[in-house]
Automatic annotation (TrEMBL):
Taxon lineage: Bacteria, Pseudomonadati, Pseudomonadota, Gammaproteobacteria, Nevskiales
Keywords: Flavoprotein, FMN, Monooxygenase, Oxidoreductase
FMN hydroxy acid dehydrogenase domain: residues covered: 20-387
Gene Ontology molecular function, alphabetical: FMN binding; monooxygenase activity
Name the UniProt record assigns to this protein: L-lactate 2-monooxygenase
Active-site feature positions: 285
Family: Belongs to the FMN-dependent alpha-hydroxy acid dehydrogenase family.
Cofactor annotation: FMN
Residues annotated to bind glyoxylate: 46, 154, 189, 285, 288
């Protein structure tokens, strides 16, 4: 008999018989409320806030309710398989952790990136490490154990610096480079603006730059000895405006699979596939960049259709196991968890982040068990329809 992710609920109920309640909530609403009470306001706003009036980020989550799946009965789902193949690795589940640039600040000790890495090691859920971290990318991957990790690139304007970051990620053992396309400039984020708070300008989450030989050479000094100059250099280097013409150059930097993050239009997906990109990442950055109004999940089916055989990663608004199953039903190859694991880190470091991932996986697995889908292929062929 296989172990199943859904068994996590048995452990919780059994602990309850001994009088022990779960230390952290299993649902997103309670998790969010607990995080709101626990996190320092500036960090909470940075994690929770989004663009404009935050309509898009709210729609991202709410739109999952517009999609539904029809249960099938008299199917033996006593054995279930949620594993997938991605970038040459077999993964126990289709979940991954999306890149979150202030992960480092989500734990009180300032080493949230390492805590996220430990949660990844404990759950087998790959971590996508942001360019913006409080610990160097080499130290973070060292804490991921046997679980593969991916490196997310905010492409610097300076080509040598971009090449250096990618080379470091490749040498350190990352399994893919995720190039984020929608963030050469920061979107209009009223919560952060009202607090005049942008963590990078305060010298936070810049360790990948500060430890980089090209960055240090450009600075001509130790970043620790002149933080202001180092931050100003970072400002001047952040955010190359990428166009289709840059894909060949990006390809020349690495042998690793290249994933394009932020693709929401089927024509862009088609063009990326034609250009030989290894995977599409359909995401609207959790509504943090543009308040465009359409939920990412509603854009996923057309992107999947256009991508053909190319894997499609998805995130934005995933809050539960049933959201995960719906995204799979709509064709996602792998599903990214964002804010929920950041809240977990804030409540209890690696242990709580791992709990958040396990709870989401348990719900996904049990939904498959109850609805008659023993495998992801069954989920996909069942599909999802609009209510
Ligand atoms: C606080 C925060 C920081 C983020 N930083 C990055 C980042 O450094 N790189 C990136 O590609 N995406 C970043 N994202 C976007 C996430 O990768 C992901 O697309 C988003 O969180 C999905 O939305 P959701 O968390 O509401 O589900 C960030 C998101 C949040 C909430």
């Amino acid at each position: 008999m296989n172990n199943h992710f859904g068994d996590y609920q048995n452990a919780i109920y059994l602990a309850g018989l001994g009088g022990v309640l779960p230390k952290y909530p299993v649902d997103f609403a309670t998790l969010k409320a607990r995080a709101e009470a626990a996190m320092p306001p500036a960090i909470l706003h940075y994690v929770q806030g989004g663009c404009g009036d935050e309509y898009t980020q709210d729609r991202n989550a709410l739109a999952f309710h517009d999609w539904g799946m029809v249960p099938r009965m008299l199917v033996d789902t006593s054995q279930r398989d949620l594993s997938i193949e991605l970038f040459g690795s077999k993964l126990p589940s289709p979940l991954f952790m999306s890149p979150i640039g202030v992960t480092g600040l989500c734990t009180q000790d300032g080493h949230g990136d390492l805590a996220a890495a430990r949660a990844s090691a404990q759950t087998g859920v790959p971590l996508t490490v942001s360019t913006l971290t409080n610990d160097p990318l080499e130290d973070i991957i060292a804490a991921t154990g046997d679980t593969p990790a991916y490196f997310q690139l905010y492409t610097p304007k300076n080509h040598e610096l971009a090449a250096s970051l990618v080379r470091r990620a490749e040498n350190a053992g990352y399994k893919a480079i995720v190039v984020t396309l929608d963030t050469w400039v920061t979107g209009w984020r009223p919560r952060d603006l009202n607090n005049a708070n942008f963590p990078q300008l305060r010298g936070h989450v810049l360790q990948n730059y500060f430890t980089d030989p090209v960055f240090r050479e450009l600075l001509g000094a130790d970043p620790a000895s002149d933080l202001r100059a180092a931050v100003l250099l970072w400002v001047s280097l952040f955010g190359k405006v990428l166009t289709w013409n840059d894909l060949d150059w990006l390809r020349s930097l690495t042998r690793l699979p290249i994933v394009l993050k932020g693709i929401c239009h089927p024509d862009d997906a088609r063009r990326a596939v034609d250009a030989g990109i290894d995977a599409i990442y359909c995401s609207n950055h959790g509504g943090r960049q543009a308040n465009g109004g359409i939920a990412a999940i509603d854009l996923l089916p057309a992107v999947v259709d256009a991508a053909g055989a190319t894997p499609v990663l998805f995130d934005s608004g995933v809050r539960s196991g049933s959201d995960v199953v719906k995204a799979l039903a709509l064709g996602a190859t792998a599903v990214g968890i964002g804010r929920p694991y950041a809240y977990g880190l804030a409540l209890g470091g690696a242990e709580a982040a791992a709990h958040v991932l396990r709870s989401i996986l348990a719900e996904a697995d049990l939904m498959m068990a109850v609805n008659g889908y023993p495998t992801i292929a069954d989920v996909r062929s069942a599909g999802a329809s609009r209510r």
